[in-house]
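Now for today's protein.

===
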Amino acid sequence: MAAAGTATFFAAAPGVVAGVVPWALTGWHEGDPGAPVPARVAGWALVVAGTAVLVAAFVRFAREGRGTPAPVAPTEVLVVGGLYRYVRNPMYLAVLSVVAGQALVLWRPVLVAYGAALAVAFVAFVLGYEEPTLRRRYGAGYDRYRAAVPGWWPRLRPWTP
């Protein structure tokens, strides 16, 4: 059940935010065919890395958390393994990585602006909804985790609960 819900949410959330909306903004057409090759290579690296992080995080929610990242079907336990030992918000960072990568691959400034707007929206959502909700749901365990693991800039060494 957790796997099915997680897969559905994967398509509905990051699939739309990092797939459908960038496509709607660009039609996947290049802005400048003469864009620097190193920028395009870096862009592809960001897209691939961001996608891998997203998949790993979603799988972890289903396996470790026994739930989904969706607010309507939260995990039974707080997810603190894998990449969550380094940073509290790897999914948001991964989506931003994918969009930044698309901006470089396609050389489209509209995707840079979209990524900046997404970053603001993500931070507002985390601060206004997600963190208070996690604090209520997981209590002192979340407070310890939050104190030890940064939200947006990864630790160099993994946190051990």
Remarks:
- The mean pLDDT is 95.
- Residues 43-161 form a domain with the Four Helix Bundle (Hemerythrin (Met), subunit A) fold (CATH 1.20.120.1630).
